[in-house]
Design brief:
This protein has no helices and 11 strands. By secondary structure, it is mainly beta. The strands form 2 sheets. Strands 2, 4, 5, 6, 9, 10 and 11 form a 7-stranded mixed beta sheet that branches. A 4-stranded antiparallel beta sheet has the order 1-3-8-7, with no helix packed on it. The radius of gyration is 14 Å and the shape is elongated.
Amino acid sequence: QVQLVESGGGLVQPGGSLRLSCSASGSIYTIHGMGWYRQRPGKQRELVAHITEDYITNYEDSVKGRFTISRDNPKNTAYLQMDSLKPEDTAVYYCNFRIIIQPANQPPANYWGQGTQVTVSS
């Protein structure tokens, strides 16, 4: 009923930038929080950035000042602007939205994107 589609990953040199997008479609009533997670090789999935429906943001310490999360509610889309990328940012990045689907009398649930690979290497 709900699908999240990510785009924007790729290969970039250290110090470079990428912008990830995640768009939700389907029987959506409203979207609460939107988050970006990543899973680095050999590591557990971790929260990188999150934005509430009131546009309150928080970031994992290692990306503060380099990454910026934003959202476009009419488009049901979240973005992650990643600047000053480092090799240790190499990971598969996943979006996660907390969504209430139609009809609106259901509790919110978490939905995941399929993941997009970000590789930072010279």
